[in-house]
Amino acid sequence: xxxxxxxxxxxxxxxxxxxxxxxxxxxxxxxxxxxxxxxxxxxxxxxxxxxxxxxxxxxxxxxxxxxxxxxxxxxxxxxxxxxxxxxxxxxxxxxxxxxxxxxxxxxxxxxxxxxxxxxxxxxxxxxxxxxxxxxxxxxxxxxxxxxxxxxxxxxxxxxxxxxxxxxxxxxxxxxxxxxxxxx
Length: 183
Known about the structure:
Shape: globular
Radius of gyration: 16 Å
Mean pLDDT: 92
Number of strands: 8
Low-confidence stretches: none
Helix content: 25-40%
């Protein structure tokens, strides 16, 4: 069965806003490698629109190898977008989900292939509550945002994790990898 991995950046004060952190080349490389080990990524509408930025970088490279490599990898990976308002997508590697989140993920996990990634806060929260996440990669950046939406603000139930790996980046961010559950 394929593994469903949530991966997201956040600040020391728990804010997940992408403008509050400044990923360096090493972090971009980590996420590019994560994408290369997967063959599907799930997005909600808002994150999908944010990630469309990488299409422009893939088409017009910046000259920064880590950024450009990440953009090429992001361009290639198949994306499934969950939206109640979008009716079509214009990114060639993206499709709209045809089923609800639970049905789509259960079907994807049964198919052969690599890991499935999820990078949207809204989907991460829903998948946690559905008990469908297998692994959680939380990259905590050494900054306090001082305001913004908190990653876990709407979680009401206790959820246990088992730490499997920790990686420190030279710029001060720390990646914590957890298996969902305690077994």
